[in-house]
Amino acid sequence: MSAEPLDPATMPTTGDALATGDVPPDVRTLGLKAKQRIYHDWESRNYDSKFSISYDQRCIDYARDRFRKVVPEGAGFGKVLEVGAGTGFFLINLALAGCVDGAELHATDLSDGMLEVCRRNGEEHGLEVVTRQGDAEALPYEDSSFDLVIGHAFIHHLPVPGAALQEMARVLKPGGTLVIAGEPTELGDKLSWIVKNATWRSFCAVTSLPGLQTLRKPSITAAGGTATDEVLARLEHEVDLHTFRPKDVEKMARLAGLTEVSVVTEELTANWVGWSVRTIEGAVRPGLLGSRWAFAAFHSYLALHRFDDEVLARFVPRELFYNLILHARKPYPQ
User: Fold this and answer.
1) Which of these, 48, 54, 21, 51, lies nearest to 231 by C-alpha position?
2) CATH number of the structural domain spanning residue 181
């Protein structure tokens, strides 16, 4: 899939779309990146709550553990950039975890709406995050600007992921570190789709029984949303473009000129439970599930994550696990 030219001046924004009220924008005329931008601008309003993003110990531990799988304790960084930063989940939680102590924090994203939330999240936790709107495939930074470049669950949205890796390598200083986490593997995603589909079908079957239909989440418009909200919500199924084979991600990183390239994978049974939980939470009437549900779901995920790491990872091929984490370094000039 080829990249499209990005002209911010002609791209619609959330404000443009919402200003039309119940007359939704014709998203069929938009290119991939325009769809990405308008969708994520709209999604930024509720993104953190939708994905249970927080800046407490639960998410601090998650970010730190992903990072420490590939970057050892004691590594220091002067200037850090998160690409495709969204609302700042990975960067801010790494900072709160002490993984980038003393570093100058920067974030970039295609969506201005996401960056606005990112800035606010940083401020709320005593962190200054310098944000800059930009395309991951043409980063708005000078060569050799950062000691550490990170990303979390974003390259699967990009038309040409390899171009983004080349850009991330370009803005790294020689000797700098690249870490990208949270990307879906090809086989892991296929397995998770079976789980999600089975969960959805089971939920629909149960809630079709007499008296149980009220358990279902109302439609967007029934809940007070507009026709524009309905249209933009459907873009969720168009903005996820790729899944990856670990060896292909390693190859892309090497072609970008990076060395010390490695990919580790994680989450098999933990991912199945996680997607089942998210499927139910996305389908059930808001407010029905309480703190006991959240506690049980979270601790089940943690237990299965340990089982995946300590037992299954010993003999299950890495390609079957859902999430991959890429680590690489930029070499010094010869």
Assistant:
1) 21
2) 3.40.50.150
